[in-house]
Amino acid sequence: MPRLRKWAGKAIVTGLFVALLLPLGAWGKAPGADPAAKPGARKVVAKVNGAPIYLDQVDGMVQARIGQFKKFASAKISDEYQKKLQAEALEKLIRSEVYYQESLKLKIPGVEEEIAKQVEDLKSHPLGRYKNKSDAQLEEMAKKKIYSSHYLAEKNLLEPEVPEAEIKSYYEKNKDNFAEKEDRVRVRHILVQVDAKATPEEQEKALQKIEEARRLIVSGEDFAGVAREFSEDNAASAGGEIDYVKRGYMPPEFDAVAFTLEPGKLSEIIKTKFGYHLLEVIDRIDKGRVPPYGDMKVFFAKYLQDKMSKKVVGE
What we know:
The protein is α+β, with helices and mostly antiparallel strands. The chain has helices spanning 55-70, 79-103, 111-123, 135-154, 164-174, 200-218, 223-230, 252-258, 293-313, and strands spanning 4-7, 10-13, 16-20, 44-48, 51-54, 184-193, 241-246, 270-272, 275-285. The protein is elongated, with a radius of gyration of 32 Å.
């Protein structure tokens, strides 16, 4: 992997030379980075082994960042912060060019076919983002993307390894953001329906049915199997399982039991406006509970890996 070493306004890279042609503070004032540049020509702010980095490329990245910032805050961007964004954008563009130039040393089987397919994908972009680009420009974009991707993959930079200590540190700093916002419960459930206008005889028949279901479970029958046979609820085919629900989703009589019953225990018969219920709590998540590190490790590792990869690629 090339290593960038800054020195006296220039940078030396393994096998490459980077020259900063215009100081950051002068970008908004200078008529052009190159004194010999023709009027209206693109301003060159840096060169990587002769390859130009243009001011409009930097400005485009800066404006995109400012646009993201303004989604969350209405405060004006300070000149100092804008210069910081310019410096970051230039660094990313230089890094991206460095990787591309290094990637040209690779021998990639079938690369021409890859480039051609990428060009077609760019032309058919659903938002027409590249409709004003010439075929030559699209081919150059595709070539840079494909060659750079192959290089980064070969150097294992697309999926960099994140140290365990860094994942744990990030978890500790951010875990409270993932605390449960409300109580939730996951249950197995059996319902024998009773219409509000049911006769006493119909109510008694429903009660006997739910009592029989409970007797079978108490005697050792599997709850899920009994639910499939007895329950008149939509979840019957899934063994009566209802995924995590918050308070208020079910009737209050149901909630009163579901949010207090010990997991794994069978409830008594519960009467609601829908009929007679039996339930067994599978798991309950209390408001404010923070997911343990083991549950979040893969998620945070992937997030940090993507972040590291984007920094390397220059996105």
